[in-house]
């Protein structure tokens, strides 16, 4: 086998062994996931708002939730110079990448909070709590005012200050991400 490395030969033999007629259709363990199980894990929110759940949120309720569940990592207001700073209005001279000066879509704030926060219990917040926290953070970053109520219809309409600096990747000919 001139010109074939031993590693390529081993991989080729493994692939051949896995695709023989003797390979069983099932290995006797596991089961198909139910639609409810799939839906519980399929919680992605797109930038256009597709996937946002029912619910709504406001600044005042969000501030209370933030104090109880977020301040230990992000500081009392989120504007403190911690490694996890969240608040700095667009044009602020801080170097930290915050919601106000870096994030391109308001909907992805909701998505990230729901999926990854709080750090010690990710995914434990209700959709209402996530809407309230999103409203609190958008207001704290001077993107919406304190009386604005956000929901699945209004959140995708919020234009983030940094959105203009993002460029869509429209390259072709490879593994396109859409």
From TrEMBL:
Q: Which residues cross the membrane?
A: none
**Cytochrome c domain: from which residue to which, for each copy?**
57-141
The question of whether Iron is a record keyword is answered with yes
Matching Gene3D superfamilies, A to Z?
Cytochrome c-like domain (1.10.760.10)
Any Pfam family matching the protein: Cytochrome_CBB3
Q: Which GO terms describe its molecular function?
A: electron transfer activity; heme binding; metal ion binding
Q: What is this protein called?
A: Cytochrome c
The UniProt keywords, alphabetically, are: Heme, Iron, Metal-binding
To which species is this protein native? Chitinophaga terrae (ex Kim and Jung 2007)
